[in-house]
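Subgroup meeting minutes
Present: P.N., E.W., G.H.
Scribe: E.W.

1. P.N. recapped why we're keeping a running log of single-chain structure predictions: easier to compare across weeks, and new members can see raw inputs and outputs side by side.
2. G.H. added today's entry (221 aa).
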Amino acid sequence: MKTNKSQLVEIKLSKNNLEVPIADGVLLHSIYDPIREAHKFTTQNAPIISKNTKFLIFGSGYGYHINAIINKLKESKINDFEIYVIEPNVELFNKYSSSKQMLNDKRIVYLVGKTPNQLYKIDEFVDFLLAKPAVLPHTASFNLNEQYFTEFLTYNAPNCLGDYIENIHDSGLKDYLKQFPIDIQLKEISNKLSKVAKDEYVVEDFILLAFNELQKTSRLL
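Output recorded in log:
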Protein backbone atom coordinates (compact mmCIF):
# COMPACT_ATOMS: atom_id res chain seq x y z
CA MET A 1 0.00 0.00 0.00
CA LYS A 2 1.33 3.42 -0.94
CA THR A 3 0.64 5.50 2.14
CA ASN A 4 2.43 8.79 1.57
CA LYS A 5 -0.13 9.81 -1.03
CA SER A 6 -0.37 13.43 -2.09
CA GLN A 7 -3.16 15.32 -0.36
CA LEU A 8 -4.08 18.84 -1.33
CA VAL A 9 -3.17 21.03 1.63
CA GLU A 10 -4.23 24.62 2.15
CA ILE A 11 -3.97 26.88 5.16
CA LYS A 12 -6.74 29.10 6.52
CA LEU A 13 -6.92 31.38 9.52
CA SER A 14 -9.16 30.52 12.46
CA LYS A 15 -11.53 33.04 14.02
CA ASN A 16 -8.79 33.89 16.51
CA ASN A 17 -6.22 34.33 13.73
CA LEU A 18 -4.33 31.01 14.04
CA GLU A 19 -3.26 28.86 11.09
CA VAL A 20 -5.43 25.80 10.45
CA PRO A 21 -4.54 23.21 7.77
CA ILE A 22 -7.13 21.73 5.47
CA ALA A 23 -6.15 18.44 3.77
CA ASP A 24 -8.35 17.17 0.95
CA GLY A 25 -11.08 19.47 2.16
CA VAL A 26 -10.89 18.20 5.76
CA LEU A 27 -10.27 20.67 8.59
CA LEU A 28 -7.61 19.20 10.88
CA HIS A 29 -8.28 21.65 13.73
CA SER A 30 -11.09 23.89 14.88
CA ILE A 31 -11.65 26.86 12.58
CA TYR A 32 -12.83 28.80 15.65
CA ASP A 33 -10.16 28.14 18.29
CA PRO A 34 -7.64 25.31 17.69
CA ILE A 35 -5.87 25.91 21.02
CA ARG A 36 -9.09 25.56 23.00
CA GLU A 37 -9.88 22.38 21.05
CA ALA A 38 -6.42 20.99 21.84
CA HIS A 39 -6.89 21.81 25.54
CA LYS A 40 -10.15 19.86 25.48
CA PHE A 41 -8.29 16.94 23.86
CA THR A 42 -5.73 16.82 26.67
CA THR A 43 -8.41 17.22 29.35
CA GLN A 44 -10.25 14.20 27.95
CA ASN A 45 -6.99 12.22 27.90
CA ALA A 46 -5.62 13.55 31.21
CA PRO A 47 -5.65 10.14 32.97
CA ILE A 48 -3.52 8.66 30.16
CA ILE A 49 -1.15 11.61 29.93
CA SER A 50 -0.55 11.81 33.69
CA LYS A 51 0.39 8.13 33.97
CA ASN A 52 2.81 7.84 31.03
CA THR A 53 6.08 9.26 29.76
CA LYS A 54 6.08 7.70 26.29
CA PHE A 55 3.47 8.64 23.69
CA LEU A 56 2.69 7.61 20.14
CA ILE A 57 0.62 10.23 18.34
CA PHE A 58 -1.18 9.53 15.07
CA GLY A 59 -1.12 12.69 12.96
CA SER A 60 0.82 15.92 13.37
CA GLY A 61 -1.77 18.32 12.00
CA TYR A 62 -0.42 21.73 12.90
CA GLY A 63 0.77 20.54 16.29
CA TYR A 64 -1.82 22.19 18.54
CA HIS A 65 -2.60 18.86 20.22
CA ILE A 66 1.11 18.03 20.53
CA ASN A 67 1.86 21.35 22.23
CA ALA A 68 -1.12 20.84 24.53
CA ILE A 69 0.14 17.39 25.55
CA ILE A 70 3.55 18.85 26.41
CA ASN A 71 1.92 21.62 28.45
CA LYS A 72 -0.12 19.01 30.33
CA LEU A 73 3.06 17.04 31.05
CA LYS A 74 4.75 20.17 32.37
CA GLU A 75 1.77 20.82 34.64
CA SER A 76 2.36 17.36 36.08
CA LYS A 77 6.09 18.18 36.38
CA ILE A 78 6.95 15.43 33.89
CA ASN A 79 9.99 16.51 31.88
CA ASP A 80 11.56 13.17 31.03
CA PHE A 81 9.16 12.13 28.24
CA GLU A 82 9.43 10.79 24.71
CA ILE A 83 6.95 11.38 21.87
CA TYR A 84 6.82 9.81 18.42
CA VAL A 85 4.47 11.36 15.87
CA ILE A 86 3.47 9.49 12.71
CA GLU A 87 2.36 11.70 9.84
CA PRO A 88 1.77 10.16 6.38
CA ASN A 89 1.26 13.48 4.57
CA VAL A 90 4.62 14.98 3.56
CA GLU A 91 3.18 18.24 2.19
CA LEU A 92 1.23 18.87 5.38
CA PHE A 93 4.28 18.24 7.54
CA ASN A 94 6.46 20.53 5.42
CA LYS A 95 4.00 23.38 5.98
CA TYR A 96 3.74 22.59 9.68
CA SER A 97 7.52 22.40 10.17
CA SER A 98 7.92 25.92 8.80
CA SER A 99 5.13 27.34 10.97
CA LYS A 100 5.29 29.03 14.36
CA GLN A 101 3.49 26.07 15.92
CA MET A 102 6.39 23.68 15.35
CA LEU A 103 8.32 23.00 18.56
CA ASN A 104 12.05 22.35 18.32
CA ASP A 105 12.21 19.69 21.01
CA LYS A 106 14.57 16.70 20.91
CA ARG A 107 12.04 14.67 22.89
CA ILE A 108 9.70 14.68 19.88
CA VAL A 109 10.47 12.46 16.88
CA TYR A 110 8.49 12.83 13.66
CA LEU A 111 8.15 9.92 11.22
CA VAL A 112 6.84 11.38 7.98
CA GLY A 113 5.65 9.86 4.72
CA LYS A 114 6.69 6.30 5.56
CA THR A 115 4.74 3.11 4.91
CA PRO A 116 3.96 0.83 7.87
CA ASN A 117 6.55 -1.62 6.55
CA GLN A 118 9.19 1.12 6.52
CA LEU A 119 8.25 2.22 10.03
CA TYR A 120 8.73 -1.28 11.44
CA LYS A 121 12.24 -1.36 9.97
CA ILE A 122 13.40 1.59 12.10
CA ASP A 123 15.24 0.02 15.04
CA GLU A 124 14.81 2.98 17.40
CA PHE A 125 11.09 3.12 16.69
CA VAL A 126 10.64 -0.61 17.24
CA ASP A 127 12.46 -0.29 20.58
CA PHE A 128 10.09 2.56 21.44
CA LEU A 129 7.05 0.40 20.60
CA LEU A 130 8.35 -2.43 22.74
CA ALA A 131 8.21 -0.02 25.69
CA LYS A 132 4.40 0.07 25.21
CA PRO A 133 3.80 3.82 24.73
CA ALA A 134 0.38 5.38 25.27
CA VAL A 135 -1.33 5.79 21.89
CA LEU A 136 -3.08 9.12 21.30
CA PRO A 137 -4.73 9.43 17.87
CA HIS A 138 -5.44 12.95 16.67
CA THR A 139 -9.05 12.36 15.64
CA ALA A 140 -9.18 14.45 12.46
CA SER A 141 -5.85 13.07 11.21
CA PHE A 142 -6.84 9.50 12.03
CA ASN A 143 -10.17 9.79 10.22
CA LEU A 144 -8.50 11.34 7.17
CA ASN A 145 -5.90 8.56 7.02
CA GLU A 146 -7.89 5.74 8.58
CA GLN A 147 -6.74 3.06 6.13
CA TYR A 148 -3.09 3.99 6.73
CA PHE A 149 -3.27 3.95 10.52
CA THR A 150 -5.39 0.79 10.55
CA GLU A 151 -2.75 -0.93 8.43
CA PHE A 152 -0.08 0.22 10.86
CA LEU A 153 -2.02 -1.09 13.87
CA THR A 154 -2.76 -4.46 12.29
CA TYR A 155 0.64 -4.88 10.65
CA ASN A 156 1.95 -8.43 10.41
CA ALA A 157 5.68 -8.82 10.02
CA PRO A 158 6.77 -10.37 6.69
CA ASN A 159 7.87 -13.99 6.85
CA CYS A 160 10.20 -14.16 3.86
CA LEU A 161 13.98 -14.30 4.28
CA GLY A 162 14.47 -11.58 1.68
CA ASP A 163 12.44 -9.14 3.79
CA TYR A 164 14.96 -9.40 6.62
CA ILE A 165 18.37 -10.09 5.14
CA GLU A 166 18.96 -6.49 4.01
CA ASN A 167 18.66 -5.34 7.63
CA ILE A 168 21.07 -7.93 9.06
CA HIS A 169 24.42 -6.34 9.90
CA ASP A 170 26.30 -9.38 11.19
CA SER A 171 28.45 -10.65 8.30
CA GLY A 172 28.66 -14.19 9.70
CA LEU A 173 24.89 -14.52 9.94
CA LYS A 174 24.48 -13.04 6.45
CA ASP A 175 26.91 -15.57 4.99
CA TYR A 176 25.06 -18.36 6.78
CA LEU A 177 21.72 -17.26 5.30
CA LYS A 178 23.09 -17.27 1.75
CA GLN A 179 22.68 -21.04 1.67
CA PHE A 180 18.88 -20.51 1.49
CA PRO A 181 16.81 -19.14 -1.44
CA ILE A 182 15.98 -15.47 -0.96
CA ASP A 183 12.23 -16.12 -1.24
CA ILE A 184 12.10 -18.98 1.28
CA GLN A 185 9.71 -18.62 4.24
CA LEU A 186 11.23 -18.65 7.73
CA LYS A 187 8.90 -21.50 8.64
CA GLU A 188 10.41 -23.61 5.86
CA ILE A 189 13.89 -23.01 7.26
CA SER A 190 12.66 -24.04 10.71
CA ASN A 191 11.20 -27.22 9.25
CA LYS A 192 14.52 -28.04 7.59
CA LEU A 193 16.42 -27.43 10.84
CA SER A 194 14.00 -29.59 12.81
CA LYS A 195 15.25 -32.58 10.83
CA VAL A 196 18.83 -31.93 11.88
CA ALA A 197 20.14 -33.30 15.16
CA LYS A 198 20.55 -30.45 17.66
CA ASP A 199 24.08 -31.48 18.51
CA GLU A 200 24.92 -30.64 14.89
CA TYR A 201 23.53 -27.09 15.11
CA VAL A 202 25.80 -24.12 14.63
CA VAL A 203 25.14 -20.88 16.52
CA GLU A 204 23.31 -19.34 13.56
CA ASP A 205 20.81 -22.24 13.53
CA PHE A 206 19.72 -21.41 17.08
CA ILE A 207 19.50 -17.69 16.27
CA LEU A 208 17.26 -18.31 13.28
CA LEU A 209 14.96 -20.66 15.18
CA ALA A 210 14.59 -18.17 18.02
CA PHE A 211 13.90 -15.31 15.62
CA ASN A 212 11.23 -17.32 13.83
CA GLU A 213 9.43 -18.00 17.11
CA LEU A 214 9.51 -14.32 18.05
CA GLN A 215 8.23 -13.36 14.59
CA LYS A 216 5.27 -15.75 14.90
CA THR A 217 4.10 -14.51 18.26
CA SER A 218 4.97 -10.82 18.37
CA ARG A 219 2.48 -7.96 18.09
CA LEU A 220 3.92 -4.65 19.13
CA LEU A 221 0.68 -2.81 19.69
